[in-house]
Design a protein that fits this description.
The protein is α+β, with helices and mostly antiparallel strands. Helix content is about 25%, strand content about 30%. It has 2 domains: about 70 residues, no CATH class; about 130 residues, Cytidine Deaminase, domain 2. The strands form 3 sheets. The chain has a 6-stranded mixed sheet with strand order 7-6-10-11-12-13. Strands 1-2-3-4-5 form a 5-stranded mixed sheet, with no helix packed on it. It has a two-stranded antiparallel ribbon with strand order 8-9. The longest helix is centred in the N-terminal third of the chain and has 35 residues. The chain starts with a helix and ends in a 7-residue tail after the last helix. Keywords: Hydrolase, Metal-binding, Metalloprotease, Protease, Zinc.
Length: about 260
């Protein structure tokens, strides 16, 4: 009888443990489901049949409030989001080589202000400063001189595995003194475009309307080198492209376009 009672108690205990484990798993599943179903801050009726489309758009680029009292947690995953701050609306972008926060709109001083915290703009590069790319830009300048009078182009990519920049030559399909077309290379999963640079040959460096159109919607540093011909005055133009927003970057022309010394 004692053996039977002991066997019954063991079976009961094992059964209770199984039930407890099942209930714990169920609770976790319910919590995850509730988290996924958490309503977004979208001004639409919950029963609107098109709400899932807006929810998907919201999830791809959410809008969050900057905390006034708690510590601000920066974006850690690759992507972007909009920040509602006391000063106005900011955009925050994360790439393997970049973390940036820039103001999009400023609130009217006389108007109502949301009860949110302040945020400071920042541009943080994984490779430290843009000067880290100067050796690659100098190499490109030499290639661009060799391509005169036509334009030339190249990419400088960030290698996440090696934690360093790398020069990537492009296959140029067509090049003239006023235009260039090239095939966009397929990058490895650990590579991402950091700097897109092209030359204007003998002409001055500037961003044309075509450059604006090409750079809109991308996240990268864009650069132009000009005045590369013999006797020309070297010039450069650089900017950070943020999904249609352009932030000018100061780069000294003499550091990039070194004029070859006479033999």
């Amino acid at each position: 009888m004692e053996k039977l009672l002991a066997a019954f108690q063991n079976a009961s205990q094992n059964g209770l443990q199984s039930i407890a484990a099942a209930l714990s798993e169920f609770s976790r599943g319910v919590a995850d489901e509730l988290a996924r179903a958490k309503p977004r801050a979208i001004a639409a009726s919950d029963d609107d049949e098109n709400l899932p489309l807006d929810a998907a758009l919201f999830d791809s680029a959410p809008t969050v409030a900057v905390p006034k009292h708690a510590k601000f947690e920066p974006l850690t995953e690759v992507g972007h989001r909009f920040l509602m701050a006391a000063q106005g609306v900011f955009i925050e972008v994360r790439r393997p080589w970049l973390h940036v926060i820039q103001q999009l709109t400023k609130l009217n001083e006389a108007g109502p202000r949301p009860p949110y915290g302040d945020i400071e703009p920042k541009i943080e590069l994984a490779f430290g400063r843009l000067s880290a790319a100067v050796p690659y830009l100098q190499a490109f300048a030499e290639e661009a001189r060799a391509a005169l009078p036509n334009e030339h182009a190249a990419w400088i990519v960030w290698d996440q595995d090696k934690q360093q920049l790398a020069y990537k030559a492009l296959h140029v399909s067509s090049s003239t003194p006023g235009s260039i077309t090239f095939d966009r290379p397929t990058l490895a999963p650990h590579e991402s475009l950091a700097i897109d640079v092209h030359s204007h040959g003998d002409g001055a460096a500037y961003f044309s309307a075509q450059d604006d159109a090409d750079d809109t919607g991308e996240v990268k540093i864009s650069g132009v080198l000009g005045g590369l011909g013999e006797g020309g005055t070297p010039s450069v133009a650089f900017r950070l492209c943020l999904l249609g927003m352009f932030v000018p970057l100061k780069v000294p022309a003499d550091a990039v376009c070194k004029v070859p010394e006479p033999a």
